[in-house]
Design a protein that fits this description.
alpha/beta, Rossmann fold, 6 helices, 40% helix
């Protein structure tokens, strides 16, 4: 009998704040939420990540992160701009990859905008915490990993 995977294989954290990235990486690994954590410093860097993933892998969907933790407010390319580019380029090609908005925003417009993207499964407040991760584990689209 095959042992059930008890964590997400790979998470991509997209955030311009290096401290937030470090905290997220440590928390995701130490809590056993994710086996592997990749990072990108803004939306443009994250798009480069996916471009390289597709260029380097014969089956990119298997190598892709199952979850993207996406900050909204970033210089160069923010989270919304990333989503605008990601949706037509990669969403249909990476059906297992889901996005969680991780942001300090309290703007109702941001919450409403997030609902317009089918790949966005949840909106959680910064900083990432054990409580956030526990809440995320109860999301029906994440539950199968745990």
């Amino acid at each position: 009998m095959e042992k059930k995977q008890q964590m997400i294989r790979k998470v991509l954290c997209v955030d311009d704040d290096s401290i937030s990235l470090t905290i997220s990486q440590l928390l995701l690994k130490r809590t056993g939420f994710a086996a592997d954590v990749d990072t990108a410093i803004d939306g443009s860097d994250a798009l480069d990540y996916f471009e390289k993933l597709f260029a380097a892998n014969s089956s990119p969907a298997e190598a892709a992160p199952e979850l993207i933790l996406l900050d909204i407010n970033m210089p160069v390319m923010n989270g919304w701009d990333f989503l605008q580019e990601y949706m037509p380029l990669y969403a249909s090609r990476l059906p297992a990859t889901k996005i969680v908005i991780l942001s300090s925003t309290i703007d109702p417009e941001d919450f409403a905008l997030a609902k317009q993207y089918p790949v966005v499964i949840q909106f959680i407040s910064k900083p990432l915490s054990i409580e956030n991760l526990d809440e995320l584990k109860s999301n029906e689209l994440i539950q199968p990993y745990f």
